[in-house]
Amino acid sequence: MENFNFYSPTEFVFGKGRAAETGSLVKKYGGTRVLIHYGGGSAVRSGLIDTVKKSLDEAGVPHCELGGVQPNPRDTLIYKGIGLGRNENVDLILAVGGGSVIDSAKGIALGIPYNGDFWDFYSGKLPEKALPVGTVLTIAAAGSEGSGNSIVTKEDGMLKRGARNDILRPKFSIMDPALTQTLPAYQTACGATDIMAHIFERYFTNTPEVEITDRLCEAVLLTMLKETPRVLADPDNYEARANIMWAGMIAHNNICGVGRQQDWNSHNLEHELSGLYDVTHGAGLAVMMPAWMEYVYKHNVLRFCQMSTRVFGCQMNFENPEATAMEGIHRFRRFLKSIGMPINFTELGAKEEDIPVLVEKLGIGDGKRAGFMELDRNDVIEIYRIAAHASL
Ligand code: NZQ
Ligand code: ZN
To answer: Under CATH, to which class is 185-389 assigned?
Structure first.
């Protein structure tokens, strides 16, 4: 196991009806004027925004609001939020929604105290200061409620890039699984795929002797395999929703990834797809993650066999370990298909002829991308090709 620091200061407030505690949590974390940030309307329609406002009013916390965050959140709304937040003198950003809303809120939180263009932090500059962010989560997926990451799309050129620092971890996150019951099945499944991908990005490592995090990863994956079909069959199943919601947090606050080298190439390749075609991140991952697996499994066949046997219930074929590795990857893809995910470019709405554009945007040049297996330009092209043609 490698040396690590693990700092996860977020207070998680989990369970039914907890959004009514927003006002007191905002006060606890020093908020005296709040910008409520939300998406395209689901949180308004469900009555959640009213609940949040009532709670803030009861706690005597003045607030302004900015809705309209799109999935794959755009820089343009963040600039608007920075302007509004400065004019209104807000000192805490309250994100009510999913990963897109939370990531947009983190962008605003970075931009308000910064004397420059907030995009600098999405182009490599390390953030040092940000306003506190609180969240009321409405979808189990990105894990931004517990992560120090924010992923934003620059509208000019549709470049999707990330900022990362522990200062971006929310001060508090309210997680009421019942709020996810209004999700369309497709978004539930996209979220489940993203959660599993966050684990796989950590699971495929070159670091030896990481039994504890391996086992934590496997527990989350097994939970997702069990609970995702349950919520799709019965969207009001609170217990299954609760397990998925907590799995989504555990999958990405890095408790499963500490002390081990991680990969993230599937995510980086996917971000170019959701950047170019504006597809849902989880759907893009359903296409990219198994394609990446198929391309890299020979780098460490036995690690893939471990996934196949422990997670997907395959029998180990000692004479032909590669067959066991591939069987696990096939079972993963079949699972994704069974929950309604696309598995190739056509089903996703992507085009094979755009592969050069995707590779160009990735900016790999003549270099290599680090990870479980180092990837150069030709490797990336091959992975996109596998993704373009994948079938069951
Ligand atoms: O905008 P509204 O109307 O709220 O609709 C949203 C949106 O259309 C809808 N939705 C959310 N909660 C709902 C609901 N509909 C009905 N009932 C509810 N309770 O779902 C749609 C998707 O929402 P979004 O916030 O985009 O989903 P998600 O949480 O999957 O976030 C995706 C974004 O997070 C980024 C992705 O790249 C993508 O941009 N990621 C962020 C990460 C992070 N910050 O740590 C890590 C991830 O790997 C990921 O890259
Ligand atoms: Zn993700």
So the answer is: mainly alpha
